[in-house]
Specification:
This protein is an alpha+beta fold and 191 residues long. It has six helices and five strands.
Length: 191
């Protein structure tokens, strides 16, 4: 492990599953400070192709009720346990930040690049949350692709949910998982 603090922070990043996140959440000032780090991403053309939706308190439970109802609509034969899981999804962590990609036509910046920028925001927010001593997890699942959920959350036609970043205080010390060996992933390109 390097003694360089920046590299140490990169090397120690890990997710804390949303089920293991509890109160307290970051307060408003801390959240804004975290977002200040999160928006510092590579952004071709300075398009700022993202925005945030904060889900906290009863709004999380209300979204869960909507998801349960939508889950039943999508699959009338869904097991009750699956519907219940959807109802609870946003009720574990005390704070969820939905990172929304806001895509605009730009001949120099294709939609994929704008989506990647929004993805970088998700990663940077995970790092910032951990930097402040919180745990976080980037989740998507079916609700990030479902048109009815997008409408319910007030997204415009040119917007996509890139991630729900669940944030809170870890209830347990999460063991690390195996990480890929970069040496096995590196090849020299030969002309
Ligand atoms: C775009 C994206 C979406 C993800 N969606 C889910 C998800 O819906 N459910 C899940 O269990 N993990 C999901 N993950 C994985 C977790 O965010 C996380 O990477 C995983 O829990 C492993 O932890 P780690 O970050 O320490 O490797 C997603 C990751 C990414 C990048």
């Amino acid at each position: 492990m390097s003694d360089n603090c920046f590299l140490q922070a990169l090397d120690q990043r890990r997710s804390v599953p949303s089920l293991q996140l509890g109160a307290p959440a970051p307060d408003d000032a801390t959240l804004l400070r975290m977002l200040q780090s999160a928006v510092r991403v590579p952004d071709h053309g300075k398009m700022v192709p993202f925005r945030f939706l904060r889900l906290q308190g009863d709004a999380r439970h209300a979204l869960g009720e909507f998801l349960a109802q939508r889950s039943r609509e999508r699959d009338p034969h869904a097991a009750e346990a699956a519907v219940e899981k959807d109802r609870q999804r946003f009720s574990h962590a005390p704070l969820v930040i939905a990172v929304i990609a806001h895509l605009r036509d730009n001949p120099k910046v294709p939609a994929q690049e704008q989506l990647l920028t929004a993805g970088c925001v998700c990663f940077a927010l995970l790092q910032a949350a951990q930097g402040f001593g919180f745990g976080a997890q980037w989740l998507t699942a079916w609700m990030s692709e479902d048109p009815a959920v997008a409408t319910h959350l007030g997204l415009a036609a040119n917007e996509r949910i890139v991630g729900f970043i669940h944030i809170g205080t870890p209830k347990i010390a999460v063991p690390d998982r195996d990480r890929p060996d970069p040496a096995t992933l590196l090849q020299d390109w030969q002309p």
